[in-house]
Design a protein that fits this description.
The complex is a heterodimer of chains A (160) and B (375). In chain A, a hairpin with a 5-residue loop joins strand 3 and strand 4. Chain A starts with a helix and ends in a 6-residue tail after the last strand. In chain A, the strands form three sheets. In chain A, strands 3-4-6 form a three-stranded antiparallel beta sheet, with no helix packed on it. Chain A has a two-stranded antiparallel sheet with strand order 1-5. A two-stranded parallel sheet of chain A has the order 2-7. In chain A, 24% of the residues lie in helices and 21% in strands. Chain A folds into two domains: 33 residues; 99 residues, Alpha-Beta Plaits. By secondary structure, chain A is α+β, with helices and mostly antiparallel strands. Chain B is an alpha+beta fold. Chain B is built from 15 helices and eight strands. The chains are: A alpha+beta (160), B alpha+beta (375). Chains A and B meet through helix 1 of A and helix 2, helix 5 and helix 6 of B.
């Protein structure tokens, strides 16, 4: 008799536990205000990333096409996987001394792991993180970027 | 006339056969291959084949400087990325005997506990999905998203943050950090009740997990099963209690122990740990002291020659880093004792003579992260 009673008690407690679970799903079903899904490709215009978001490494340029990079190659040294190559040249400075200027700041986005050591260790704050994140391309050579814009030069006063 | 030799042909019931579970299987959560010997539906034995995502991390560490190693440890156990970073930072700081500012300790402890919560949330989500409750997956990921947003605001990345550096942090916390964390705790204290309602008491779930995959305390110790999986068998193995680091000796929290040693006990440990982690964060979040977010470090960090070992409690168990330095800026040898690797070793033992459907439940309850196994 006891086992007979337990059998039905198990069935009822089981059904009750299922109903408790279904009450939770039912609650969300009837309150669509709690929907958290973002309609991503449609909301591209309004989508704003956080200001610290690490999308890619960029070199900010001011309005006169000046950047702050001296070509000291500390970022190249600190990069754990060789994503940064610096090609610099030595030219004659105004006072006759040889001055190092950056020729190309090559950045391999495809190899970058976003460890942020280059941005952190740059003594001149010449590098920053950009917000762009849609990096999918059909040809991986596109992922090799030259960060300094053509014709750009260093801001006066930051040369070594 | 030829004599016919009759070799005994095993019947279908007796015959053992092998199937590959993985490397592409939804319940292995990565590229883990289990060669399972089956008799009918009964698991007779099981051989894990590792190495599908082996990246040679220990060897890569030998050419990297100590700050560069940190971004590799993110990619070991990606669900406890902050905690892995913490291990390397503590190793360097203890070797150089650097005292980090109090603010750093507070932030690191909060980040570690957020990390533990989101790891357990994702585990709860995928464990529910493995056992047939797809709703769990949506709810778990929905709440985990809140933590990822908090991280993205402060660290700039959602998943592989590389936020800690030897001596401190990469950047200071975002001004909104404290407000958002408090809002999250308030939110999640409500939502975790849904978790309990939907899965913890569910009759189908409890029938599938109770008395499945029994592991005694002695077995847990001899196989080195640490973390929530070991504590489900009653083994008190929380590094935060036994070898406190950061602020774990100052905050008040319980070490969750269950003595049943089955899949349900391992589940309950993780559920209760989420409450404990929230309790730890609540104690710290209002009291973050002002100060620097990093200690003064030399530009090139060189450890004195010698051997070092550092343990932390990651979301999966005891993470140990063993390092031999010869005085250079790169380590001579780096060895990671990762929790998932040891936890995997017990899977063969506890899933014997059970059904193959139970193997999915047991594997889920051990909470394996495959890159943590292969490194």
């Amino acid at each position: 008799m006891n086992s007979f009673f337990n059998y039905f008690a198990d069935i009822f407690s089981g059904v009750k536990s299922l109903l408790i679970g279904m009450s939770v799903t039912g609650k969300y079903f009837f309150s669509p205000g709690q929907i958290v899904t973002q309609q991503y490709p449609e909301n591209r215009k309004t989508l704003k990333m956080y200001e610290r978001f690490k999308g890619e490494v960029i070199m900010p340029h001011d309005a006169n096409n000046h950047h702050r990079c001296t070509g000291c190659a500390i970022c190249e040294l600190n990069c754990p996987n060789g994503s940064i190559e610096i090609v610099s040249a030595r030219i004659d400075g105004p006072d006759g001394k040889k001055v190092r200027v950056i020729d190309k700041h090559i950045y391999h986005l495809g190899m970058c792991t976003f460890c942020s050591l280059c941005v952190k260790t740059c003594p001149e704050n010449a590098l920053a993180f950009g917000q762009e994140f849609e990096h999918a391309v059909f040809d991986r050579s596109v992922l090799t970027k030259i960060l300094n814009q053509p014709g750009s030069s260093i801001i006066k006063g930051t040369e070594e | 006339m030829k004599e016919v030799i009759h070799t005994p042909v095993p019947s279908v019931e007796e015959e053992e056969y092998h199937i590959n579970m993985g490397p592409q299987h939804p319940s292995t959560h990565g590229v883990l291959r289990l060669v399972v010997s089956l008799q009918g539906e009964i698991v007779k034995n099981l051989k894990p084949h590792c190495g599908y995502i082996h990246r040679g991390m220990e060897k890569m560490c030998e050419k990297d400087t100590y700050p560069q190693i940190i971004h590799l440890t993110d990619r070991m156990d990606y669900l406890s990325a902050h905690i892995n970073n913490h291990a390397v930072c503590l190793l360097v700081e203890n070797a150089l005997q650097i005292e980090v500012p109090e603010r750093v300790k507070y932030i690191r402890t909060i980040m570690d506990e957020l990390c533990r919560i989101q790891s357990h949330q994702l585990w709860w989500a995928s464990f529910g999905m493995d056992l047939g409750g797809l709703t769990c997956f949506f709810y778990g990921l929905r709440d985990r998203e809140k933590i990822l947003d908090i991280w993205e605001e402060t660290t700039g990345a959602r998943f592989l943050q590389s936020y800690y550096t030897p001596g401190g942090l990469m950047w200071d916390i975002h001004p909104d950090f404290q407000k958002n964390v408090k809002a999250f705790i308030k939110y999640f204290r409500k939502k975790i009740r849904d978790y309990e309602k939907i899965l913890s008491g569910n009759v189908i779930f409890t029938e599938r997990s109770r008395n499945i995959g029994l592991m005694t305390k002695e077995e847990a110790i001899s196989y080195g099963v640490t973390g929530p999986s070991g504590r489900g068998s009653g083994w008190s193995c929380d590094i935060r209690k036994h070898h406190p680091y950061a602020l774990y000796d100052k905050v008040e929290f319980k070490e969750i122990l269950y003595h049943e040693g089955d899949t349900l006990a391992r589940y309950m440990v993780r559920m209760d740990e989420m409450y404990e982690s929230m309790h730890i964060i609540e104690q710290l979040i209002d009291n973050i002291p002002e100060g620097d977010f990093s200690a003064k470090m030399k530009a090139v960090i060189k450890l004195p020659a010698g051997e070092y070992y550092q343990r932390v409690e990651s979301a999966r168990g005891d993470l140990g880093i063993y390092c031999i330095s010869d005085g250079n800026k790169t380590p001579y040898r780096m060895k990671f004792r990762t929790p998932s690797f040891s936890n995997l070793s017990v899977l063969d033992h506890i899933s014997r003579d059970l059904k193959i459907a139970d193997l999915v439940a047991i594997g889920g309850s051990l909470d394996l992260v495959i890159p943590d196994i292969d490194r």
